[in-house]
Amino acid sequence: MQTSQIGIPARWVTVVMSAVFVVCWSSGFIGANLGAGEAPVLTVLMWRFLVVAVVLGAAVYFRWRRRGLAPMSGRAVGSQVVIGALSQAGYTVTVYWAIALGVSTGTTALIDGVQPLVVAALAGPLLGAVTHRRQWWGLLVGAAGVVLVTWSDATSSADAPWWAYLVPLLGMAALVAATFLERRVVDPPSPMIILAIHCGVSAVIFTAAGLLAGVAVPPADRTFWLAIAWLSILSTLGGYGLYWILLRRSGVTSVNTLMFLMPPVTAVWGTAMYGEYFGWATALGLAMAGGATWVVNRAESSTKVRDRRRAAEAVGAL
Predict the structure, then answer these.
(1) Residues 203, 228: Cα–Cα separation, whole Å
(2) Cross-strand bridge partners of residue 3
(3) What angle do CA 255, 176, 51 make, to 5 degrees?
(4) What is the C-alpha separation between 168 and 94, in angstroms, rounded?
(5) What is the C-alpha separation between 91 and 262, in angstroms, rounded?
(6) Which residues cross the membrane (predicted)?
(7) What three-state secondary structure class fits 3?
(8) 49 neighbors 240 (Cβ within 8 angstroms)
(9) What CA–CA distances, in Å, run from 309 to 95, 253, 296, 312, 313?
(10) Least buried of 5, 44, 114, 122, by fewest C-beta within 10 Å?
(11) Please, are residues 314 and 306 in contact by the beta-carbon 8 Å criterion?
């Protein structure tokens, strides 16, 4: 059994990281609602990424001074700039916009929950990855759970116009595109460097947008800065950082299947903090999403074990 450097089985390390990732990623929807009540969307996004970019920039600088960093080509930096613009700026602005329009945090997360099916469908033609039959069943069950909870949540509230429910789909498409672009990177830098570049790009984009829109000055309200701290630490460093780490560790299908857990977790969280609707359909969707995650990840794990066994048998036959 493969173990980590501190003697813990690597499988359990991945499980813990996955659980923390789900909580951190879900926190972004809650934090977006927290910030949306205090300032315009561009103001929240501008200061969120400015804070993280400064922190990560300082961390990269001190690491460079102490250990040195491998040089990156202009093409490599350009690739990360594009990936960052899609995965952070493109994704977050649609989430915040939808919530500002009146879409609940749970519904926004639920609409984004179709991402695993899109990734699974495109993984074969774009990456040459194989999605097995059991994984497809798990993905379909998870998608059904997402649709069920989305329908229940959307019909329980009429705060947002109908077209606002399409906005999160644009963010989902941006994140899917960024995921596949990252998988084509041959020699990616460390996750810290990746996150620093992505946050730096997003900070530049949203600062320029905030200045042009005349909303760059932050409010003095304590709740606003609480939202910024929440979004910077949990959502950006925790959520996005673990996303790229787990993408390398577990693969596209397993990581994106965890997205099925975001909608029900966010729905429960939104109910607890904001009194958003939570009914039997939400509970059933939670069970379906959890079951789908278990099925898909178990199928992938079984496939890896079988492939290693076949490889060992082939070597023994030589």
Answers:
(1) 13
(2) 9
(3) 85
(4) 5
(5) 15
(6) 12-32, 44-64, 76-97, 109-129, 136-154, 160-181, 193-217, 223-246, 253-271, 277-296
(7) strand
(8) no
(9) 44, 22, 20, 5, 6
(10) 5
(11) no
What's the rounded Cα separation, in Å, for the pair 64 and 83? 23
- DSSP-based three-state secondary structure for 37: coil
The whole-angstrom separation of Cα 26 and Cα 47 is: 20
Q: What is the pLDDT of residues 99-153, one digit of tens each?
A: 888 887 877 877 776 666 666 666 665 555 566 676 677 777 777 777 776 676 6
Structure tokens at 20: 């923390």
- Residue 260 to residue 112: CA distance in whole angstroms: 9
Count Cα atoms within 13 angstroms, Cβ side, for 155.
9
Amino acid identity of 73?
S
In a 13 Å sphere around the CA of 4, the CA atoms on its Cβ side amount to 12
Tokens 């916009």 belong to 97
Q: How many CB atoms lie within 10 A of CB 301?
A: 13
φ/ψ of 9, rounded to 5, equals: -55, 135
* pLDDT per residue as tens digits for the range 4-39: 544 556 677 888 888 999 999 888 888 888 887 788
Model-wide pTM > 0.85: no
Task: Tell me which residue of 280, 206, 276, 277 sits closest to 236, measured CA to CA.
Answer: 206
Please tell me the distance from the alpha carbon of residue 261 to that of residue 57, in angstroms, as a whole number.
32
In whole angstroms, what is the distance from residue 285 CA to residue 310 CA?
37
Take residue 226 and report the two structure tokens written for it: 């609480």
The predicted structure's pLDDT at residue 316: 42
Using alpha carbons only, how large is the chain's radius of gyration in Å?
20
For residue 161, report the phi and psi dihedrals to the nearest 5 degrees.
-65, 160
Q: CA 313 from chain center: how many Å?
A: 38
Question: Residue 235 gets which letter from DSSP?
Answer: I
Residue whose entry in the numeric block shows the structure tokens 């997360």: 109
